[in-house]
Amino acid sequence: MNILFTSPGRRVELIRIFRENWVEGSVFVGTDSDETAPALYFLDKSYRHPYRIDEDYHELVLSICAENSVKVIIPLIDPELPVISKYREKFEREGIFPMVSSYEKIKIAMDKWETFKFAKNLSMKVPKTILGSDVGSLKSMNFPVLVKPRYGSASKGIMKFEKPESLLCFKDLLNENHIIQEFIEGYEVTVDIFGTEEGECIQAVQRRRLKVRGGEVERGVTQKDPRINDIVEKFTAHYKPRGVINVQFMVSKDGVFLMEINPRFGGGYPLSHHAGANFPKLLLKYIRGEKLERMGMNYVENFYMFRFDQAVYVSEGEKVKLL
Asked: What one-character DSSP code corresponds to residue 97?
């Protein structure tokens, strides 16, 4: 069952996990905008795609799948998700399974304002949030606050303001493409979820972030908080993901707050895998239509991950040539 990883970047460990748990003899294909992406050196064949993802991107992915008899697509960065999801049925007609949720659900995850409204409608705790264009409502906000790009990812472009007057200095730069969100003091827990479009939560692993670098967890530990598990069950029942997603929470003295939805493999998934959540195996069963047994919080608690850097060393002639 040949598989395509789009924009694998630095996700070497994820590819290694798939190698160990996927169908033997499968061809591993990748596509990236940068030939120096380390993960390309752990794939069988690699292609180039444009740095900027647009509507035509799905045609390029389709052609790569056709050329390599690819049956499964694993998108790994946010900008790809809306495009691949929008054309999901087109892929399926060619016998290809894109591991991506429905277009409507992707839009909820990609838009932080829609994420806020989705959680609010389910009566989940979420930081008080207003649009950047609604500075008139600042008087109702508790400071400090965070200003975030409404459609941003990887913690880019986030600014913290301690007082209203400091934020008001920037009010002319804010618009409906920003959100203003009350700052939650606490610690972050990311939950890796394997769910189905019937709303079943097959397995969910909570991992507390101990140290973050560049928006991705560098050190973490698994935990089992029943409060978070209850929220995840409710969330999955309504979000109905297709396969793997991860959801970020902040835990404070006031409770558990839903912060963000990332409808793809998270960068810290390898910790969940080594703690007992084999999502590639679950994905194979899901694709084949086999019965999935609910595993809940069946994983090792207090299991740690301490990441460190490794490198790929090649001569000029050994560099990957993107097709």
From this structure: E
pLDDT, the chain, mean: 95
Residues 295, 121, 154: CA angle, nearest 5 degrees: 65
In the chain, what is the straight-line distance between the N-terminal and C-terminal CA atoms, in Å?
21
The torsion angles phi and psi of 273, rounded to 5 degrees, stand at -60, -50
The DSSP-derived string for 165-207 is HHHHTTGGG--TTEEEEEPPPSEEEEEEEEE-TT--EEEEEEE
Helix 103-110 crosses helix 112-121 at what angle (to 10 degrees)? 110
pTM over 0.90: yes
pLDDT tens column, 172-222: 889 999 999 999 999 999 999 999 999 999 999 999 999 998 778 999 999
As a whole number, mean pLDDT of residues 64-75 equals 98
Which three-class secondary structure state does DSSP give residue 19? helix
Under the phi-then-psi rule, with left for phi > 0, alpha for psi from -120 to 50, and beta for the rest, what region is 309? Answer: beta
Q: What is the pLDDT of residues 20-52, one digit of tens each?
A: 999 999 999 999 999 999 999 999 999 999 999
Q: Give me the numbers of helices (H) and strands (E) for the chain, helices first please.
A: 10, 15
Torsion of CA 38, 41, 66, 55, to 10 degrees: 10
Per-position DSSP letters for 128-149, written without gaps between them:
-EEETT-GGGGGGSPSSEEEEE
Q: Which residues contact 157 (CB under 8 A, 6 or more apart)?
A: 148, 149
Query: What does the chain come to in residues?
Result: 323
Domains in the chain (CATH in brackets) are 2-100 (3.40.50.20), 128-182 (3.30.1490.20), 185-306 (3.30.470.20)
Confidence of residue 154 (pLDDT cuts 50, 70, 90): low
